[in-house]
């Protein structure tokens, strides 16, 4: 980071660092989302190529009086590049973001860019919380009950049972602190409700979670694929392979199904008239199913707040992610996680798996 | 089986054996489904408690002239009992069904009962096809393109890469023979399209499948959760844990989403009028998403045709399963699988993994 960039970063207190170059659509949705978040009272550091960011900011009248600052850095890790590049390219926008958090000059990172690079940068620059073997990606899915919190949705394709136990604890603290859910129920994703059903990994994780019930978490037991949209539990914990498949299937199915509904409503003159009348109602439903509503996923288990979103995120997703990052910071999530992990230190599931 | 039962079974040629006691609703949907299938020209052996089955048949006028016979057996493995009970309870209805296939007195088994018991009975009585390490459950899901064939949906929670390679071959032959799809594309479910993404299992399976491309199968490469409803490939191969989660999530999400659509259409007087007009169109969509439309799953890799359905199957699911079983028998599926497995014998992925 240049000397000028450091000066720019300092006076804002603790703003959120936004990887302004990240995502499939570059600066445009990032800047628009930052402007919207700033109007809602959140300070944002826009990290990226200053000329491009300023040109984009100029399209938003009145943005110069908002709590927005630009941190200039010319390097960006593109969507097609390697995550390991974060090791050598210290001036890449995502590395500048995580470095700002490490130096306590930003409260959190939000990035819609290369998710592997963002995870790698967070691990490298911020490190893991004590007692955490592997950070997990946590996200929300819509459910009958409102939403369900799912993790890991892709940070770890191969896991150990102890990871799942740690993630159950982290997600419990997160929901308690950030979403005001006092005693969230934890479900372990399996292929049968009975305790003895599942893979060896799930059987081992079940035993650990059962032992933790009432001591840091509330363990409901196994849940199945059908329980996710039912909202049977507040939290669903699974490995990063299954969780990623679940997330992408859920989003993909919603998209195809809503397409079929529209098709069905337009399939006859009679139903077309019905569809026109019902259009407003369906639009509300589409919004409920839009991943943007929930913003980015949280990388849980690193020493700092890191939110990583879809490459296809629009300005609403950017804005919502910035607001959620600010809320997590205000609720002192990282400190609360540390305390919970310390109390958990005596548990058989604590970070001793490696 | 009693001597009388054996006499009853003989004269029908090769009917389908239906576990008439299986499922959450007992004989009622089984008998109704058998009657409907018989009306469509399929001979059925109803295996179970004769008095109950006859009482149920009496509710269907004209059923006495249909190609239906009853095989009396009093024992049934209930949904809450152990799958291992099939070892000791040889007169249980599912065991009588698989024994009929083993003795070439039935063309196939259809059961909506205890799925673990049905799999265990099939393995015990019929055994595996040469070259198959583990049989898999194959099912269809609705997709933009019509339907997608997914396996394994729950027979094997813990798998090896070679199993996935074998299943890709079996599913290819199945679609070619039974659904007339000449060169179905095989996708390997992963968490990224790139070859190097996924769990260690997926990376190993990817290498095996790549080597088989053009030799027995057509390998598309990795697919993600979102590709399932898109119908990117004809076949999606995965482990039985992930596949079972996918199946139950897909069904559960469809149910909840259609509920939300109905709610949205009824949420205002204006949209309610629209909803009434559109009702017929939506009903068609609900039917498309109803698992009954596809009937039971096929246990692929045993020496005989075995179809295992939802406990909650209705008479349509029973009927469709019986028709599909008859079609698979007429297309000589088992023999065609044997030939393909023999040709596959030289491949590195052939049944040498144990």
Automatic annotation (TrEMBL), chains A, B:
GO cellular component assignments: cytoplasm
MF annotations from Gene Ontology: phosphate:acyl-[acyl carrier protein] acyltransferase activity
Cleaved signal peptide residues: none
Pathway where this protein functions: Lipid metabolism; phospholipid metabolism
Catalytic activity: a fatty acyl-[ACP] + phosphate = an acyl phosphate + holo-[ACP]
Compartment(s) of residence: Cytoplasm
BP terms from Gene Ontology: fatty acid biosynthetic process; phospholipid biosynthetic process
Keyword Kinase: no
Pfam families: FA_synthesis (PF02504)
Alphabetical list of Gene3D superfamilies matching this protein: Isopropylmalate Dehydrogenase
Main location group: cytoplasm
Functional description taken from the UniProt entry: Catalyzes the reversible formation of acyl-phosphate (acyl-PO(4)) from acyl-[acyl-carrier-protein] (acyl-ACP). This enzyme utilizes acyl-ACP as fatty acyl donor, but not acyl-CoA.
SUBUNIT field: Homodimer. Probably interacts with PlsY.
Family listed: Belongs to the PlsX family.
Name of the protein described by the UniProt record: Phosphate acyltransferase
Source organism: Deinococcus radiophilus
């Amino acid at each position: 980071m240049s000397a000028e960039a450091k000066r720019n970063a300092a006076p804002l207190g603790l703003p959120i660092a936004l990887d302004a170059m990240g995502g499939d659509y570059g600066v445009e949705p990032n800047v628009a989302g930052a402007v919207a978040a700033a109007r809602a009272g959140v300070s944002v550091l826009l990290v990226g190529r200053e000329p491009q960011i300023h040109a984009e900011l100029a399209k938003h009248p009145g943005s110069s009086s908002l709590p927005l600052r630009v941190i200039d850095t010319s390097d960006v890790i593109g969507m097609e590049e390697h995550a390991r590049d974060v090791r050598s390219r210290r001036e890449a926008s995502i590395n500048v973001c995580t470095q700002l958090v490490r130096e306590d000059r930003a409260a959190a990172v939000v990035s819609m860019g290369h998710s592997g690079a963002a995870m790698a940068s967070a691990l490298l620059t911020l490190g893991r919380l004590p007692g955490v073997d592997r950070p997990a990606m946590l996200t929300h899915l819509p459910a009958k009950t409102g939403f369900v919190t799912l993790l890991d949705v892709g940070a770890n394709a191969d896991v150990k049972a102890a990871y799942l136990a740690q993630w159950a604890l982290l997600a419990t603290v997160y929901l308690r602190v950030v979403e005001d859910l006092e005693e969230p129920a934890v479900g372990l994703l399996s292929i049968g409700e009975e305790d003895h059903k599942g893979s060896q990994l799930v059987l081992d994780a079940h035993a650990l979670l059962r032992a933790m019930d009432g001591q840091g978490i509330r363990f409901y037991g196994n849940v199945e694929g059908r329980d996710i949209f039912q909202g049977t539990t507040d939290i669903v914990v699974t490995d990063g392979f299954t969780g990623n498949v679940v997330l992408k299937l859920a989003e993909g199915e919603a998209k195809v199904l809503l397409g079929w509904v529209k098709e069905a409503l337009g399939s006859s003159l009679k139903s077309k008239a019905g569809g026109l009348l019902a259009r407003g109602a369906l639009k509300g439903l589409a919004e409920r199913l839009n991943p943007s509503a929930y913003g980015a996923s949280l990388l849980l288990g690193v020493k700092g707040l890191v939110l990583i979103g879809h490459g296809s995120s629009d300005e609403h997703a950017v804005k919502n992610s910035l607001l959620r990052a600010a809320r997590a910071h205000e609720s002192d999530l990282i400190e609360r996680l540390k305390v919970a992990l310390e109390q958990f230190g005596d548990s058989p599931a604590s970070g001793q798996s490696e």
